[in-house]
Write a structure and sequence with these properties.
flat; about 0% helix; about 450 residues; 4-stranded antiparallel sheet; 2 helices
């Protein structure tokens, strides 16, 4: 298009189809480029049309789920080209069509290849209201394989999540949870290499988080087959450093989380030799781990395990004048969300306590079971600073407490005062933790 000239106008077929809600260039054909056009309102459940731009004729009609609530099939449409240079060069494509309204908001995404007549895979959202399929992005490719990220901004009451599937068998390899309740994390996705650092990156939009937010995750270097993804980026790129300068990044994580740190030269100086010094400090400013690294060309990788929950600080400095470098930090193995069972047999009415450690932003639910005794006289959730959780009763239904957003990082204590001697059990679960929650014994 030059000078505003319109090359073609492709009209929709019926009112309220929302024809043109999503677009993707699929391939080149003898009758012109083939473009996928999403119409999520068509036939109530949505359709996606493959249309030749030269003739404006429909070459294929992709029909989504046709039962239950309106699926919105065609709300997201994307095509990703893949090529293999091993032996005879071969190329192909994966076309992705999302239906976030499927099954009352569970959501689904269908995957097609060059043949658009039948999907090769149907991915289902793992939660009932996640709106899985709202957005998608290719974040890594090796040969004829891809890793596909799918957004589910409704997960966890609107906090959102991103699920990553490998095209080898279309199983989920990992997920990233939205850090903010109601933020809509995963409503928009973009994948690729955004700068000169090695590896694939994923940008995730959270349009409902305050004034909106975009987070960029460095995932892994592309390798043949599935991507060697190690997890969420915790600390930002600390950039070129000069002698005497100290760059700082802070992050929150849970006790037991394993980190992988990658030291490398900065940007345009990727081939130069750098001497870097890094220090990992806890919330009290105490250095828990330090590294002195010499890196040239190939990144140097170090690993460590966090000994406590809360806010951590990572400092990076150049050891020699003129050096510049970067450090990228990933969660290699976040501490998992686990249940805690505190079973106490008491001959008095002394308080029963269950302790756990978490980071701010995690959501807690727990249940108090006084066996066959009368209901407890009091239930208190003590925060790390010793103050009780404000208005805990607003999350209570009988003796079950759900959807409690934790306000502080560190050790928490659930204190139950029995109304009579006996056995009291406390069962707690961390729900949708942003990094990982480790409940203590």
């Amino acid at each position: 298009v030059r000078g505003g000239a319109v090359l073609a106008v492709i009209p929709g077929f019926a009112a309220n189809e929302r024809f043109g809600s999503s677009l993707s260039l699929h391939s080149q054909t003898p009758t012109g480029d083939l473009v996928l056009v999403g119409a999520p309102g068509a036939a109530n459940h949505g359709r996606t049309y493959a249309i030749a731009t030269e003739t404006q004729l429909v070459q294929e009609t992709l029909v989504g789920p046709t039962t239950g609530t309106p699926a919105g099939f065609g709300s997201d449409a994307a095509t990703y080209r893949v090529c293999s240079t091993i032996g005879i060069p071969t190329c192909g494509s994966f076309s992705i069509v999302g239906a976030p309204g499927f099954n009352g908001g569970q959501g689904t995404t269908r995957v097609y290849t060059d043949d658009l007549s039948t999907p090769v895979a149907t991915l289902l959202g793992p939660t009932a209201d996640g709106a899985f399929g709202t957005a998608s992005a290719k974040i890594a490719a090796g040969g004829l394989a891809i890793d596909l990220a799918v957004g589910a901004p409704g997960t966890g009451g609107g906090a959102g999540a991103v699920h990553v599937h490998t095209s080898l068998d279309w199983t989920e390899t990992f997920r990233i949870d939205g850090p903010t309740p109601g933020g809509g994390f995963g409503a928009a996705l973009a994948g690729g290499s955004f700068d000169l650092r090695p590896g694939e990156e994923l940008a995730v939009g959270s349009p409902d988080e305050g004034a909106g937010a975009v987070r960029i995750y460095v995932l892994a270097e592309a390798v043949p087959g599935p991507a060697a993804v190690v997890g969420d980026l915790l600390a930002a790129d600390l950039g070129p450093a000069s002698e005497g300068d100290v760059d700082v990044a802070t992050f929150e994580a849970t006790k037991g989380t394993k980190l992988k740190l990658r030291f490398q030269s900065a940007g345009d100086d990727a081939a130069s030799t750098v001497h870097l010094v890094a220090r990992l400090k806890d919330a009290k400013g105490k250095t828990r781990k330090s590294w002195t690294v010499k890196a040239k060309g190939k990144p140097v990788t170090k690993k460590t395990k966090l000994k406590a929950s809360g806010t951590w600080t990572l400092e990076l400095a150049a050891k020699k004048k003129g050096d510049g470098g970067e450090i990228h930090v990933f969660t290699e193995k976040p501490a998992a969300s686990v249940d805690v069972y505190e079973l106490k047999t008491q001959t008095s009415t002394k308080p029963v306590k269950a302790k756990f450690s978490s980071i701010a932003g995690a959501t807690l639910q727990f249940e108090v079971d006084p066996d066959e005794n009368p209901a407890p006289t009091s239930i208190v959730l003590e925060q790390p600073d010793g103050t009780p959780y404000p208005d805990l009763a607003s999350f209570q239904s009988d003796l079950v407490f759900t959807g409690i957003p934790l306000l502080q990082s560190g050790k928490h204590v659930i204190v139950v005062t029995p109304s009579a001697p006996g056995t009291t059990e406390i069962v707690g679960t961390a729900v949708d933790p942003p990094v990982g929650v480790k409940l203590l014994e």
